[in-house]
Write a structure and sequence with these properties.
Largest interface: A-B, 9 and 16 residues
Structural class of chain A: mainly alpha
Number of strands of chain B: 22
Largest sheet of chain B: 6 strands, parallel
Number of helices of chain B: 16
Largest sheet of chain A: 2 strands, antiparallel
Distance between the termini of chain A: 14 Å
Helix content of chain B: 25-40%
Structural class of chain B: alpha/beta
Oligomer: heterodimer
Strand order of the largest sheet of chain A: 2-3
Order of helices and strands of chain A: HHHHHHHHHHHHHHHHHEEEHHHHH
Shape of chain B: globular
Distance between the termini of chain B: 24 Å
Strand content of chain A: under 5%
Strand content of chain B: 25-35%
């Protein structure tokens, strides 16, 4: 007997249709840029046409009356991220410039943007039009907070399903609702996001006026989009390193804010800063950055091959550590030239990530904190088997089920990370390209954890175009899985999801 | 006074017995046999029936009552009984509850449920246990302002670190006031430069935490400190409240609880306590976890038999002090006879608290010190009384009477009195005064 499909897939498809139909709004921005600079508007017109058509089709196929339960939410999350990445690739293909003319490369660039990874396949930045370069920035900004929160704000009629979506998006048991209605919560968070981005534009632009004419309005907007989103694309081949040191310093706080829990930022803005300042996850992640940055700074300072001077050493250490830990992926200098020790610290930093409920990717500090505390608890209970000791974060006991989920997530991440490393090494070898293990590990971590540049040829001033096309295709899938935190994608491949 | 007691259990009977001689007491109980029996035991009027019913309350003449005490074993019954009483008359209502939830609700808005005074049995018992644990060196300890403030009297023994110090040297705690010093039977109101010598008795008023800290200073040998092992057996409400209060006083107790769900709950709610999930009657476990080396063991399991067993076991294993919660008042002496250091009965504690409350006028809670030489009073200041709206230094300057204000509580929070503290209506003022000055002070309040 054929098993019956019991997932209300039409609800998920319908919701995806709604999102696709809303995509012309962000696509209009690079379109305006194209018109302003007198470039071809065709890439965006084509993408708008496709998204409208696809959106309408999906909406017809979808069923607005069916319920959006947890399974439908999982399916919708996976679908939406994939479909938006596909539509996002259209402008690159239609523009037909440089490496991104190839559909796989275009999809890589688009997925890298949407997942706020920031790994690029661009080789020569100068062949691309300003509007296409701006589209890269916009798609990262959209990916930053999750287009899903936007979706829940726009589509308030989703109701309970909206809450379901947010939970599968952040994988936290206990989503702090700021308002009784999920749509209102999404609006508040979206508002903060808008506000911070606006602030970044103003700060960068004013600094640009003062110290660096290259930071014009175009660049201020482009970098504001990708700093609060902790995303990492830059229209400049030298990334933020192209600008005056003062601007590099100014980017640091925006990356940090972007990887701080937006819920806690909301409370901090609304007169309850202690909730943020007393948060253990916040301490952990600031502490990790401070520790890594000091080690890197010391390493650079005593490295005879590097002569940045005191301010330069400090700036490059802080900037690149913050950029890597927050999974932004900007660079202030080509750290590939650093000594192995400093690079390994950066590699370690890749796995930390910012706070849950922020725009950051990677493992995230909360999971590390819970795992470490639970490990410490296990040491204690090894001596006192009868002791009952809940794991506490910021004094709040963590549910044992959540701890098991975190272990499962960590284990899965490690397995996938190593599998991806093997794929990269083997596939490179097959196509006659030599990558060192460290470069392969870095490339695997950086795509799967959505960080951005890696080491070697894929370093901050390099490109992922050097990897074979097949590897890049695998990376596209892994960025997708990594951004929606594994489980929502993997459950789609279980039989129980579809039938029981 | 016309007093209606609802519930003729241990607590109700005990209260009725102590009030019967001086007051007109009516006891209501659902059990007709119990009511009948009580009529012959005590000189009281008994009514059989549901104490929450207005019909029965009318029969008990609640409308005319000065005081209604609801002390059945059921929280809700007691609250409803008080609520009913408020619809019939204007008597002062007292409710006994077990749940600290109800107590918190009531503290948030006194008068809630129609209750004028609420006694929480389990909390009261836990407070008693913690007092016994924490201040073995004290000659006398009394709680004031619903437990927010403690008065304690310590004898300064040979070798006490404060002997030879001045009061200002000894008084190093934020919310503690040195109110009296007895030397050779004579009371002095101490000033900063008054010296403390061996054999003196010092009276302090302050928060329970600061009194605890002071006790550690006065008698470090006998007062348990942070290093002392305190084990609470049984995570009942009493066990939980005991551990919580111990945590507040900076101890790190251990709690042994057999039920895994309850153990988890305790561990989540007691951050500084180590909770062990095991059967405490397992001697091997007790030895493995070094419970035999504990300084103090409190047994707070639900059953007297188990508490007895564990108390005896703990004593045999060599625990210094064992404090047992005993549910049945009859067993208290049995526990003490076989060598358990202290047996505490929650019902007796509750009955004593309610009775003490009924003895005194509503606004005053009194402790008498050293053969009536001085008294510690708690005054609730009302709008328009002579003390309101003035700083303490001004009041002291114009009064001949010798007294010291030890503590003030305002909206359930402790305010440490200073010369410039302005008293407000609604404040509870805890002060020590020479006995012959009492009249002058109460006339101002």
């Amino acid at each position: 007997m054929r098993p019956t499909v019991r997932v209300g897939w039409r609800a998920s498809v319908g919701l995806s249709g709604d999102i696709l139909a809303a995509l012309p709004v962000p696509l209009a921005f690079p379109l305006l840029v194209a018109l302003y600079y007198g470039e071809s508007p065709l890439p965006f017109v084509a993408a708008i046409a496709v998204s409208v058509a696809l959106g309408a089709g999906f909406r017809r196929l979808g069923d607005p009356n069916s319920n959006l339960g947890p399974r439908e939410a999982f399916l919708a999350v996976a679908l939406i991220w994939f479909l938006v990445a596909v539509v996002g690739a259209i402008p690159f293909v239609v523009a037909g410039d440089g490496t991104t003319a190839h559909p796989v490369n275009a999809l890589f660039e688009s997925m890298s943007g949407l997942t706020t990874t920031g790994a690029t396949v661009l080789v020569d930045f100068s062949v691309h039009s300003r509007s296409v370069m701006m589209w890269r920035q916009v798609i990262q900004w959209l990916g930053g907070l999750g287009i899903l929160i936007l979706a829940t704000a726009v589509l308030s009629e989703v109701g309970v399903g909206g809450a379901q979506l947010m939970e599968s998006e952040t994988q936290t048991q206990d989503i702090n609702k700021l308002a009784p209605k999920i749509s209102r919560t999404a609006q508040l968070i979206w508002g903060i996001y808008f506000g911070l981005t606006g602030l970044a534009v103003v700060v960068y632009f004013l600094l640009g006026l003062a110290v660096d004419p290259r930071m014009d309005l175009y660049n201020a907007v482009a970098h504001a989009f990708t700093s609060v989103a902790t995303a990492g694309f830059s229209p400049e081949p030298l990334s933020v390193g192209a600008f005056h040191p003062a601007i590099q310093w100014a980017v640091v706080p925006f990356m940090v804010i972007g990887s701080t829990s937006f819920v806690l930022i909301y409370f901090a803005i609304n007169g309850e800063p202690m909730r943020l300042l007393k948060n253990e996850e916040f301490h952990f992640y600031l502490g990790a950055m401070a520790l890594f940055a000091s080690i890197v700074a010391l390493g650079l300072f005593f490295d005879p091959g590097i002569g940045y001077g005191v301010e330069g050493t400090l700036r490059h250490a802080v900037f690149n550590v913050v950029s890597i830990v927050t999974t932004t992926g900007y660079a202030s200098t080509d750290y590939v030239t650093w000594a192995p020790a400093a690079k390994h610290i950066l590699f370690m930093g890749m796995f930390v990530g910012g706070m849950v409920g922020s725009t950051t990717c990677s493992i995230k500090s909360l999971r590390w904190l819970v795992a470490l505390k639970s490990f410490r608890r296990n040491l204690y209970t090894a001596i006192h088997p009868e002791a009952v000791r809940p794991v506490r974060i910021s004094e709040k006991p963590i549910d044992e089920g959540a701890i098991r989920d975190i272990y499962a997530y960590l284990l899965l991440s490690i397995v996938i990370f190593f599998l991806l490393t093997v794929v990269i090494v083997v596939d490179a070898e097959r196509s006659g390209l030599r990558v060192t293990e460290f470069e392969a590990l870095g490339a695997a971590a950086t795509t799967f954890l959505n960080i951005g540049p890696a080491f070697g040829a894929a370093g901050p001033y390099g490109t992922f175009a050097t990897f074979p096309m097949s590897t890049r295709a695998v990376m596209v899938v892994l960025m997708w899985i990594g951004r929606i935190e594994i489980i929502p994608v993997l459950v789609l491949f279980t039989k129980a999801f579809w039938t029981s | 006074m016309h007093v209606v007691v609802i519930g003729a259990g241990e607590v109700g009977t005990s209260i009725a017995a102590s009030l019967a001689s001086d007051h007109e007491v009516v006891v209501v109980d659902v059990d007709p046999d119990r009511a009948e029996q009580l009529k012959y035991e005590l000189d009281v009027l008994t009514i059989a029936g549901d104490g929450t019913s207005s019909e029965i309350q009318t029969a008990a003449d609640v409308g005319r009552a000065d005081m209604v005490i609801a002390c059945t074993d059921n929280d809700q019954t007691n609250l409803v009984a008080c609520g009913t009483a408020k619809t019939l008359g204007d008597g002062f209502t007292i409710a006994r509850v077990k749940s600290t939830d109800f107590l918190r609700t009531w503290q948030g808005n006194e008068g809630a449920f129609g209750v004028d005074f609420m006694v929480c049995t389990d909390l009261l018992t836990a407070e008693n246990i913690v007092r016994v644990i924490g201040l073995p060196a004290a000659v006398d300890v009394d709680p004031f302002a619903g437990g927010l403030v403690q008065m304690a009297e310590f004898e300064i023994a040979e070798g006490s670190p404060v002997a030879g110090q001045t009061v200002s040297e000894a008084d190093r705690f934020e919310s503690l006031t040195f109110v009296g010093l007895f030397r050779d039977g004579e009371m002095t109101i101490p000033r900063g430069d008054t010296g403390i010598t061996v054999g003196d008795r010092a009276v302090v008023i302050g928060s329970p935490e600061s009194v605890q800290a002071f006790a550690t200073d006065v008698a470090p040998q006998t007062t348990p400190g942070r290093a002392d092992e305190i084990v609470v057996v049984g995570g009942s409400e009493i066990g939980y409240q005991t551990a919580r209060l111990l945590e507040e006083r900076d101890f790190k107790p251990r709690v042994i609880e057999q039920d895994s769900g309850r153990a988890r709950w305790l561990a989540e709610n007691l951050p500084k306590t180590v909770v062990m999930e095991h059967d405490a009657t397992d001697a091997e476990f007790l030895t493995r976890e070094h419970v035999d080396e504990a300084d103090i063991v409190v047994t707070a399991l639900g059953s007297d038999e188990k508490n007895l067993l564990i108390s005896v076991l703990a004593k045999r294993l060599g625990v210094d002090r064992v404090i047992a919660v005993v549910d049945s008042p009859d067993y208290v002496t049995v526990f003490e006879e076989i060598g358990i250091d202290i047996a505490i009965n929650p019902r007796t504690v509750t009955a004593e608290e309610i009775t003490r409350f009924t003895y005194e006028s509503v606004a005053e809670n009194i402790a008498v010190l050293e053969n009536d030489q001085a008294e510690v009073l708690e005054l609730e200041l009302t709008e328009g009384c002579g003390l309101v709206g003035r700083p303490i230094s001004e009041i002291v300057a114009e009064t001949d009477a010798r007294f010291v204000i030890g503590a003030i509580t305002r909206d359930h929070a402790l305010v440490t009195p200073r010369g410039d503290t302005v008293l407000q209506a609604g404040d509870h003022v805890i002060l020590l005064a020479e006995s012959d000055a009492i009249g002058a002070i109460t006339s101002m309040a």
